[in-house]
Design a protein that fits this description.
Length: about 200
C-alpha cells in the first residue's frame, strides 16, 4: 500500500511539473523559431513589382563558394527558381519573373515581376537551400521572406478622340467669349460718342 502511494505521488508530481512547464516550453519553441516578418507591396496592373528578399545573413558563407539556390513560390505553385545560370519560370510567369544572378551572388534574392496582372495578387514566399549542419551533406529549404502582393486596377486612359473633342469645345468657348467681348465694346464707344456730340450741340 505504501509502495502504491509512493508511486502515485511521484507520478502525480511529474505530471504537475510537466503541466506547469508546458507554457514555458512552448514559449521557448516559438522564440527559437526563425521569424520572417511579412511585408506588403502594392502596384497597379501592367506595372512592375520588386518582392524584397535578402539572404546575406544566412548564405554569407555560401556566397563566396557558389551561387545560392533560391526558390519563390505561392501557396499553390512554384513561381521561380534559380541555381547559377540555370533557372525555371512557373506557368503563367514565363518571361515575367527573374532573380538576376549577379544580384543573387551578392545576397539579393529579390524577385522582379513584370507586367503585373490582377491574378498575380497573393502571398509569395522565398526559400533558400541550406545544409542541415556545417558538416552535413543533407540540405533543407529555409524560409527567407514572405511578401503579400496587392494589385490595383490602373486608371482607364481617356481616348484620344474624346480629348480632341474636349479641346475643340474649349477653343470654341474661348473664341465665343472673345467675340462677345468685342461686340459689347463697340456699341459702348458709339454710345459715348453720341452722348458727347449731343452735349456739344446743345451749348453751341
Amino acid at each position: 500500500m505504501h509502495l502504491f502511494l509512493l508511486t502515485f505521488s511521484m507520478s502525480y508530481c511529474s505530471t504537475m511539473r510537466v503541466t506547469l512547464l508546458q507554457p514555458f516550453i512552448m514559449l521557448i519553441a516559438v522564440c527559437a523559431r526563425p521569424l520572417s516578418a511579412q511585408i506588403s507591396v502594392i502596384v497597379n496592373v501592367g506595372s512592375s513589382a520588386v518582392l524584397h528578399c535578402d539572404c546575406k545573413p544566412i548564405a554569407s558563407s555560401q556566397l563566396s563558394k557558389q551561387s545560392p539556390y533560391i526558390k519563390w513560390r505561392t501557396t499553390n505553385e512554384l513561381v521561380f527558381e534559380r541555381l547559377g545560370e540555370e533557372h525555371f519560370q512557373g506557368e503563367g510567369y514565363e518571361d515575367r519573373v527573374d532573380v538576376p544572378e549577379d544580384k543573387l551572388r551578392k545576397g539579393n534574392c529579390s524577385l522582379v515581376l513584370k507586367e503585373v496582372k490582377a491574378e498575380d495578387a497573393g502571398v509569395y514566399e522565398s526559400y533558400l537551400q541550406v545544409k542541415r549542419s556545417k558538416r552535413s551533406i543533407q540540405t533543407t529549404w529555409k524560409l527567407i521572406q514572405s511578401v503579400e502582393l496587392s494589385v490595383h486596377d490602373a486608371p482607364a486612359p481617356v481616348p484620344q478622340q474624346q480629348n480632341d473633342i474636349e479641346n475643340k469645345s474649349d477653343k470654341q468657348d474661348t473664341s465665343m467669349t472673345s467675340s462677345s467681348a468685342g461686340l459689347i465694346s463697340v456699341p459702348s464707344q458709339i454710345l459715348m460718342f453720341t452722348i458727347l456730340t449731343n452735349t456739344l450741340l446743345r451749348y453751341t
